[in-house]
Write a structure and sequence with these properties.
It comes from Arthrobacter wenxiniae. Residues 702-741 are annotated as: Disordered. The chain crosses the membrane at residues 20-42. In the C-terminal section; belongs to the transpeptidase family. In the N-terminal section; belongs to the glycosyltransferase 51 family. InterPro entries: Beta-lactam/transpept-like, Glyco_trans_51, Glycosyltr_51/Transpeptidase, Lysozyme-like_dom_sf, PBP_transglycosylase, PCN-bd_Tpept. This protein is of the alpha+beta class. The protein has a domain at 15-280: Orthogonal Bundle (Penicillin binding protein transpeptidase fold). Helices cover 35% and strands 9% of the residues. The chain is built from 23 helices and 16 strands. The chain has helices spanning 15-25, 29-34, 44-56, 98-108, 120-131, 142-157, 172-188, 191-201, 211-219, 228-237, 250-266, 272-280, 301-312, 321-330, 341-350, 425-434, 490-495, 499-506, 511-520, 549-560, 595-611, 677-691, 705-708; strands at residues 70-73, 79-83, 334-337, 365-371, 378-383, 418-419, 442-444, 487-489, 546-547, 564-565, 571-575, 581-582, 590-591, 624-629, 635-641, 646-652. Strands 2-1-3-11-12 form a five-stranded mixed β-sheet. The chain has a five-stranded antiparallel β-sheet with strand order 5-4-16-15-14, with helices on both faces. The longest helix is centred in the N-terminal third of the chain and has 17 residues, at 172-188.
């Protein structure tokens, strides 16, 4: 590092020589500093008052940290997206090419290491030239330019554009103040510190602030790797970024570069051989276009949006939303996330086989989201749209996989979930086991009538629901296929996804406890995460409630992990440009379901892929899953797992949630009936087979033998078979859950 200067009134350096010259010339300090005031002879008293004015100016300036680009990284450290108001990545002077340091000094301030902030020789020449009618000449040192850049860009970063003054807008007082600040800066910082700051703050055209951003943009290299001709080219730009822009005005840029090289040769910074080779070099730009925000993300743009919403909604990152947005766009954050690029790319690739972005005239939505059991890490979040798509592709700002709002009521940009169909049934089954029933206990799945007044139990509220074709607006409870109405084990009732089996179980349980089981595993309404899944109507037991795919994946992960529930997490770490660490939300992992209950649910869900509703979508690894289909195939699902991964796959219409998928163009065909296994299941199968081997694919623990022993039980209460002759409350009729799976 160069030694610090202490130049105030040192007549060999700065202010003393300046004031001496002014006294001799009888030109006031305001004239010298401003270089804008007409040259007139002033009295000695005026000169003295100008010196007093100069002394009274403030000499403190808070340089602070320049606005720097933030970046979001995947779990492997690869960059997903960048955010900036000023595209800048600050670097140490040691990480800048020696050619760059020499080049900018050669062309902007040859006496940089000799003066104390003001180059009095240059300043005197400028004043003499103007006094003699020679016009205005530049006299700003690197230190003065640094001061000017800090003032302007700090105002810009704070949105105070009205305070910015450029060139001719500056008054004599403004120039005098900049001189005073430059002198003060030289007292406070070393020459190398100032040069480092200057090279990190200055504009290099095309929105690139600082030499690291410029080196990356123009040549695709780091600042430390700039060659002599590259460094000379960039050094030439700073004098006038518009005129010497190498993209817009390459001839001007080359001429300016060669001037910089000539100055370097004259100042013995390079030798003649280096000079000759550099002036002959082609400009050879390798433009790496700047990318700003999630719409230009390398991958996973909706995950990127989800992450940014987590940051701007969280008071840990600033008092107001505006403060948090400023931190994201100016704070030089490095945000490391949980996303696994291999999984993300594999998920995104699935849509080409089903609902491609360029040939999806019916706008059928599709999404895949993956979480890791026991950590809550979100590993992939993909859908078949873009935030801002080119013509011919589907654009939407809605993230199909997440809640509409967070728990604080802030927007997450999500669709708010979809009716989940039969993927909700395992949670009734889990409470069946949790309450002491056995896997192979019999339930009477032949019961189809649950008339008005049926004694549904709900100790934390009330529940209604009528399945009775004698009641206006209702019908008998239906299964997917005729011939499935008979007593059956609870296990096979879930394997075959029989509505009548699930409702028969619920008729013997407290619906409050079913709701508590759902809440324990993380299920909540997608429109309002503060509200539990609503069981005020028993139709919700069969899936007439909207839940986001991410929530469903997280809930199934509770079973796959032996009953441990973890909140979904996307953030691993956040640090700013100074290396300060910010807190990130934790997964809050805890034992939410008894291990033996989780094992019992997994035991049954594995059979779904063997001889149940998902028999055609099995994996090559130990796995379990549940399919789901709502009324008229409006929403179709498969949520399933291996020991190391849980993925929720959804196909439906996000824009019209009541529209059927039947007959829509999917996978290049139109078929009359679509269920959860048809497309959502096939996408889940293909994706999981491709990537599950990257994580744990071991076997699952078996439930205890005592849970497997069958116990023959009596059929549900006779009230379930009674007809309601005098029903008078049609509003209590449930939504008609689709009889399919």
């Amino acid at each position: 590092m160069a030694a610090k200067k202490h130049p105030i009134f040192d007549t060999a350096t700065t202010l003393g020589k300046l004031m001496l010259f002014l006294g001799v010339s009888a030109v006031c300090g305001v004239l010298v500093a401003g270089l804008m005031v007409p040259a007139v002879a002033l009295t000695g008293n005026t000169a003295t008052s100008s010196i007093d004015f100069f002394d009274q100016l403030p000499d403190e300036m808070n340089v602070g940290v320049p606005a720097q680009s933030s970046k979001i990284l995947a779990a492997d450290g690869s960059e997903l997206a960048t955010f900036y108001d000023q595209n800048r990545t600050a670097v140490k002077l040691a990480d800048i090419s020696p050619f760059m340091k020499k080049a900018v000094i050669a062309v902007e301030d040859a006496r940089y290491y000799q003066h104390g902030g003001i180059d009095t020789k240059g300043l005197m020449r400028a004043v003499v030239s103007m006094v003699q009618g020679g016009g205005r000449q530049g006299a700003s040192t690197i230190t003065q330019q640094y001061v000017n850049n800090v003032i302007i860009q700090t105002y810009a970063a704070n949105g105070e554009y009205d305070k910015i003054k450029l060139g001719g807008d500056k008054t004599a007082g403004d120039k005098v103040r900049e001189i005073k600040l430059a002198i003060a800066m030289e007292k406070k910082y070393s020459k190398d510190d100032i040069l480092q700051g200057y090279l990190n703050w200055v504009l290099f055209a095309n929105g690139n602030y600082g030499v690291e951003a410029a080196a990356s943009y123009y040549f695709g290299v780091h600042a430390k790797d700039l060659t002599l001709p590259q460094a000379a080219l960039l050094a030439g730009v700073v004098n006038s970024p518009t005129i010497y822009d190498p993209v817009a005005n390459p001839d001007n840029a080359i001429a300016r570069r060669n001037l910089v090289l000539a100055n370097m040769l004259d100042q013995k910074m390079i030798d003649k051989k280096q000079y000759d080779g550099a002036v002959k070099a082609k400009i050879d730009l390798k433009i790496h276009a700047n990318k700003n925000g999630c719409t230009t993300a390398v991958r996973a743009e909706y995950f990127c949006e989800y992450v940014t919403n987590l940051i701007v909604n969280d008071a840990r990152y600033g008092k107001t939303k505006s403060d948090r947005e400023k931190l994201l766009y100016q704070g030089g954050l490095t945000v490391k996330t949980t996303l696994d690029p291999k999984l993300q790319d594999a998920a995104q690739a699935q849509f080409a086989n089903f609902t491609p972005m360029t040939n999806n005239p019916d706008k059928v939505g599709q999404a895949l989201v993956t979480v890791q059991p026991k950590t809550g890490n979100i590993l992939a979040m993909a859908q078949n749209t873009k935030l801002h798509a080119p013509k011919g592709q589907w654009s939407t700002e809605y993230n199909f996989t997440v809640d509409k709002f967070d728990k604080g009521g802030n927007s997450l940009g999500g669709s708010g979930g979809f009716d989940v169909g039969s993927t909700i049934k395992p949670f009734t089954y889990a409470e069946w086991l949790n309450s002491g029933h056995k896997i192979n206990d019999m339930v009477d799945a032949s019961v189809r009538k649950y008339p008005l007044g049926f004694p549904w139990r709900n100790s934390c509220g009330s529940s209604t629901g009528i399945y009775d074709n004698n009641y206006p607006g209702s019908q008998d409870l239906q299964n997917a296929e005729d011939g499935r109405y008979s007593p059956i084990t609870a296990h096979m009732g879930l394997v075959l996804s029989l509505n009548t089996a699930t409702v028969a179980e619920a008729a013997q349980l407290d619906l409050c406890n079913i709701q508590k089981m759902m809440t324990a595993t993380g299920i909540h309404l997608g429109q309002d995460p503060n509200k539990p899944y609503d069981l005020s109507n028993v139709s919700s037991l069969l899936g007439s409630g909207e839940v986001a795919p991410l929530t469903m994946a997280s809930a199934f992960a509770t079973f796959a992990s032996g009953g441990v529930h973890c909140d979904p997490v996307a953030l691993v770490s956040i640090t700013n440009a100074k290396g300060d660490k910010f807190p990130v939300p934790g997964a809050n992992c805890k034992q939410a379901v008894r291990p033996e209950v989780a094992a019992g649910v997994v035991h049954t869900l594995q059979q779904v892929l063997v001889n149940g509703s998902g028999w055609q979508i099995g994996l090559r690894y130990p796995a379990g899953a549940k399919t789901g289909t709502t009324n008229d195939s409006q929403q179709t699902w498969t949520t399933g797992f291996t020991k190391g991964l849980v993925t929720s796959s959804w196909v439906g219409s996000p824009e019209d949630k009541n529209r059927s998928n039947n007959g829509k163009l999917i996978a290049g065909q139109r078929i009359p009936y679509v269920d959860g296994a048809t497309y959502a299941g096939k996408a889940w199968q293909s994706y999981m087979n491709a990537i599950a081997g990257n994580y744990d694919t071991g076997g699952f623990p078996e439930p205890p033998a005592s849970m497997l022993n069958p116990i023959v039980v009596a059929p549900p209460p006779s009230a379930a078979k009674d007809d309601a002759k005098n029903a008078t409350k049609p509003s209590t009729a449930p939504k008609d859950p689709k009889k399919k799976d």
